[in-house]
Amino acid sequence: MQVSGSRMVYVHRLGCPKLDVDQEYLNNGLKNRGITFVTEPEAADTLIVSTCAFIGDARKEAVESILEGIEWKKEVSGRRIFVSGCLPVRYESELAVELPEVDGWYGFGKWQQALDHITSLSSVAITPSKSQSDQTKIPSSLESTLSRLPRSTSSPYAYLKIAEGCNRRCSYCAIPSIRGAYRSRSVSDIINECHTLIESGTSEIIVIAQEINSYGNDLDGKDSINSLLPLIGEQFDKLGKQGWLRILYTHPPLFDDAFIDSLRNTPHLVPYIDFPIEHADNSVLRAMRRATTWEKMSDWIDKLRTNIPEIALRTSVIVGHPGEGEGEFETLLQRLEETKFDHIGVFQYSPEEGTHAETLKQIPQEIRAAREDQLQELIYDQAEERAEGLLNKQVEVLLEEYNETEKVWTGRSIWDAPDIDWQVTFDGVGKKGELIEGRIIAAEPWHLSVVPA
After folding, report:
1. Helix 225-238 vs helix 257-265: crossing angle, to nearest 10
2. Which of 132, 204, 255, 340 is most buried when burial is the number of CB atoms within 10 A of its CB?
3. What domains appear along the chain, each with residue ranges and CATH number?
4. Pairing mode, if any, of strands 394-403 and 312-319?
5. What is the predicted pLDDT for the residue at 176?
């Protein structure tokens, strides 16, 4: 359906990189139908709020953004607001009643409706799903018509999603109920998309899935993450391009020697691994149903540091999970102090509807908050120590944006993923998307100053 006239769309982005990829597919489908995207909401007549529903804070942020969008809609006649992402999957029926001003709710499996309704120039009456199951009927294959649309991005980096969903039943996590069972994309589909992204000028491919080292377990047994990663890395060489390959969201219980070998031998893979421990006390790990121990994870951390020189390790930690007493929390602090991860993300436990942990005895919120604050102090102290150790080191930098006011480039080092890790200021000549060798002349928590090497 071709639009007669033009819709001007602004996307308010919330949530994780996996959600960003979903939104990119939808955006490109809309572009193919004549939609124009704008960078400011005041220039738009249509607003899409791309939402997360993983934890309570994310849901609160999403609802607040929707309410702001409703006020934006009321200011000018003819404006419309749509909500995409995880929030509609879990709560469309309730929210559609509470917020009738929203013109459409689109979780997974409703992309065709989203394309039709958003591109329509007239108002469309939306009937909310009768049940959550209506939203979560996800095709067994990810290679739907929408996901085959070519992606384009003005950014020097792009996320490449290799699988959807999750088969784990961690006690605190609602992702399987939101995104369904684990479903791997085919190798050919992944490589074709990777090839297109690099050919269009992408300098960094970031491979993502809920747990990338589960890739291929649901296929015919011939494909695995160990065979896939080298194929992705080879695409830069085949196209004669510079480039980085980065991976996010590994699952520590699935680590083995073959996986580390594939990391070491994959072309263009940067020395960076996301290794989410979630906790470091064994009794809490059991309560979380993480299927591993601190000792096993510590061994893999040692092997990663031994096999991949200069590696930066990112982890995530949940504080205040049921069963975490003062002693268990002190164990977490002590082991984090000893291990010295390069990056740590801390989350305050949030009881999620339908999860096992929701049924357990809860730790008071004020205690959870105090523990988060205490851990943040440790994170800052370690960031200061890390910054001191990085002075005068050589590092490769990806240039992302030029600051006309300061006359410097902003970007990231090989040790940093976008949005969540440290940033770099580069004082030198270059162009967007270029990879440049530099020397660190100043460092402070979460920021490096670099000059040409």
Report:
1. 0
2. 204
3. 8-135 (3.40.50.12160), 157-389 (3.80.30.20), 394-452 (2.40.50.140)
4. unpaired
5. 85
- What is the number of alpha carbons within 13 Å of residue 23 lying toward its C-beta? 26
- Residue 243 to residues 97, 226, 260, Cα–Cα distance (Å): 48, 20, 21
pLDDT in tens, 298-322: 999 999 999 998 999 999 999 999 9
Residue with tokens 């377990």: 217
Tokens representing 414? 């090989």
Q: What are the beta bridge partners of residue 160?
A: 207
- Residue 350 makes CB contacts below 8 A (sequence gap 6+) with 55, 56, 57, 172
What is the reported pLDDT for 121? 59
pLDDT at residue 296, as a whole number: 98
Which residues of the chain are under the pLDDT cut of 70?
1-6, 109, 121-153
Beta bridge partners of residue 207, listed in sequence order:
160, 247
Listed residue (286, 353, 295) closest to 322, CA to CA: 286
pLDDT of residue 153: 63
Residues 6+ apart with CB under 8 A from 345: 314, 315, 316, 317, 420
Helix-strand-coil split of the chain, %, nearest 5: 40, 20, 40
Q: Is the dihedral of CA 270, 276, 282, 285 positive or negative?
A: negative
Q: What pLDDT is stored for residue 179 in this prediction?
A: 81
Output the pLDDT for position 109: 66
> What is the distance between the alpha carbons of residues 322 and 364, in angstroms, rounded to a whole number?
10
**In 3D, which of 244, 241, 308, 242 has the Cα closest to residue 275?**
308
Record the pTM.
0.84
Q: Choose among 280, 296, 290: nearest CA to 335.
A: 280
* pLDDT tens profile 410-442: 999 999 999 999 999 999 999 999 999 999 999
Distance CA 163, CA 372 (A): 31
Neighbours of 380 (CB within 10 A): 12
**Cβ contacts of 42 within 8 Å, gap of 6 or more:** none
CB atoms within 10 A of CB 452: 13
Q: Which residue has the tokens 């400011």?
A: 40
8 A C-beta contact, residue 102 and residue 51:
no
